[in-house]
Each structure stands twice: as structure tokens, then as C-alpha cells.
Amino acid sequence: MSRRSVRVGIVGVGNCASSFVQGLSYYRDVNANEPVPGLMNIELGGYHVGDIEVASAFDIVIDAVPCAKLARDRGIGRALIGPSRYFMKSPPEPFTDSEARERTIRFIREDTEPTH
Fold it and tell me: For the chain, what is the radius of gyration of the CA atoms?
């Protein structure tokens, strides 16, 4: 008989989320009648820790939100190269941190961002 699952979504992928996911992996195959360090109960409400499935997870760099709003308000529908590098460290094109900061400041002060 297959077990029921509980699908969870994690908002904010930081230390607590990491501990949660590591715990799911660590306790997944523990028998319900075994004592386990770190948990009061391996089962709760008929669900075992192994029944929990992480269905989605995401995080956001809060400082990037104002730039996204500026882009929306300005009708910009493309990647923001400078802010991408400055906030997320994963731009579609590489350049230095100082150049990313300068491009982000120019974007905030002006209506457009240099594309190259």
C-alpha cells in the first residue's frame, strides 16, 4: 500500500529551510516505534516524516523588488542586467561588482538601463 504524502512549499530558502530538508532526509526511514534524537514524534496525525515531500521552494532578494517595480512602471519587459548582477550574482553577461553597482544606480536614477 502506498503512503499518503504531504506536499509542502518553502518560502525563504535559508538556514531553517536547510535544516528542515536535511531533517526530512535524515528521518525519512526511521520506524515509528524507534526513539529518535531531535524529534518528539516521528509520526503526527497519521503522517510519518517520510510522507513529507518538498514540492517547491523559492527565495527573493528583497532589495531587488524596488528595481522590479521601477522596471514594471517604466514598461521594461526584459532582464535588468545591472541589478541582476548586483543583487543575484547571476547575470546573463559577466562584469565586476563595482560595474554592477554603477549600472544599478544608473538604472534607479534614469529611465533606462544600458544594455551593454
Answer: 22
